[in-house]
Specification:
Layout: H1 2-6, E1 10-11, E2 14-15, H2 27-30, H3 37-49, H4 53-56, H5 66-75, H6 95-99, H7 103-108, H8 113-117, H9 126-138, H10 140-151, H11 158-175, H12 181-188, H13 193-208, H14 229-242, H15 247-258, H16 265-272, H17 289-299, H18 305-326, H19 334-348, H20 353-375, H21 379-382, H22 384-407, H23 416-428, H24 432-438, H25 441-448, H26 458-467
Antiparallel strand pairs: 1-2
Helix pairs in contact: 3-9, 5-9, 9-10, 9-11, 10-12, 12-13, 14-15, 17-26, 18-19, 18-20, 18-22, 19-22, 20-22, 20-23, 22-23, 22-25
Length: about 475
Amino acid sequence: MNQLEAKGKVKDGKLNPEMFESIPAKFWTEGLPLEDFHSAWDALGYVLAHCQGGQLYTEEHKPFPQALQSALLEHLNPARQGALQPRVRKALLDLEHYRSQDLTKLLLSTDDPDAAFRYSPPDTSWSDYYALKLLWSHAPQALVNWLSEVCAQPVKGLRPNVLVIEVFKHICLLLGFDKHPVQIESLLHSETSIVTWVGLHAFKDAINRGAWGVETLGLIDQVTPAGAHRTILCWLINEANYEESDVKHQLISKLTQSLQGPLSDQELQDILQPVRGRLGRLHHFTPWILESLLLPMLEQKTVDTAQVSREWFNELASQWRGSLKDNNSLYFKLEADGAFTDELATLTRYLAPEDQKTIVAELWKIFNALARTIRQPFSAQVSWQSHIRAHEVNLWLYALARRIDALVDVNASPSLAELLLESEEIIDRLPDSYQDYATSIELLTYMKGDPDQLKSHSLGHTIHKAITSGQ
């Protein structure tokens, strides 16, 4: 700084803004043709950080010499000798947590790259920061290639970790404002999962917000590995539904067109896993999966009603058993849980008799489990939580059984009618005063609802139309 001041380049204790408002024009054609490029770039990085040039030089499209690109990539080399080291911090983002996961696991996780990287504190040297910034704006494919190579194996050492985190942070920050096709496509073409993951989140935002048209959906087919394409599509469908984006319909069409022949139960589960809600359930706050996603598949005979009803029943049974085991409240909501239960009851109407008997038998198993808890001597005194959770499950189970009984005459033994009678006997054990505060009002409302209303519900007609299509 003293040398700069002696040469008249400092004004009021700062770099003279008139002299450092932009990068010299010859930089964009010649780069820094110096023998010791890295020391010169270290110095220039400090200058850029303290003048207007560091803010403005990426705004215009300038030529980018290949020699400069290569020199900047070498400057970022994690193993480069003599590199300026980042500051040591007590806390550092666990990069390996994200890097070690395959693409499917990353997409199915609750993690988001923008939340993971954007708010990580800056630790790199100014020269490293401006090198990655310049490469991302002018040579994104080269930077992504470098990033993919570094992240292809565990990233060890302080500077390599900080470099990678800073690159991801910068990419997420910039893509939050501008969706440049060349940059996003370079991420999508990477064969390293963590890099592709960042690209897919940017791609998702671009199509959901209308920045990109449906013609760009073909980019999904170029993502590696090919085995993840179905998961990617389903994940994008779920995100489009969450954002209420019009692209959801095109994504569903692309998915259904890609399905060849009947799906196995496991393949159906693989499709349903990415479309679960934020709480990990198939029954969202507003049910949509059956009518929007699965009815087209039922229509083209990719799946059948037995498969769908098994998944719907297993979803409820898992929630019920979890409540009985861990004493967790069911938090029943009419518009979500009630509608989902109605879907299952309606599906049961179109099952083969043996499949209907299977559902009744499974209902008996769950009922017997909850009845043992409630009928235990001094059950409420032994464990009030277990006692009331069992009552909640019984109310929900009874509501489903009533709806199935209204729609279907199931010839099972023990019968559905017997199940309803025993379930009612359990309900009678719950005093009215307890019902008002110990269970969900919405669950009580649903349990008392008229099951015959399902007979005229439009969903039944829609399912019937789908499964009889082409006959």
